[in-house]
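[Meeting: bench + compute handoff]

Bench side (C.D.) handed over the final construct sequence. Compute side (W.E.) agreed to return the predicted structure before the next meeting so the bench team could plan truncations. Sequence as handed over:
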Amino acid sequence: MDVLSVTEPDTPREPVLNLPGAMTAILLALAGIHLFRQILPLDSDQWIIWTFGFVPARFDSSLLADRFAEYGGAGAKVWSFITYSFLHADFTHLAFNMLWMLPFGSAVARRFGAIRFFLFLAVAS
């Protein structure tokens, strides 16, 4: 038998990073939102923080609560429980959150599946 005629069997190659699709989507969303905020003027970025960030004073029954009416109104009391987790102070904050999500979030995403993973993130945020 000729040595040159022997070929290796075709074996599928494993990807370098074997991230579940749901984790990839979350990481891309986090990075995209952060990059988008970086190109905004300071006033627009502050509006995003006050509208989508979790602001405890928004739930105060005093007159201070009316101060946040221009930032999302009553709807912000609902969505800010989820949307605050997509806002990060700087690149270091974002990077460390993503690094922690890689091992732990990937395991949860594989175990739960995409839809249950997203629901879990919404409830656990």
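W.E. noted at the follow-up: The CA atoms of residues 54 and 80 lie 5 Å apart. C.D. will use this when planning the next construct.
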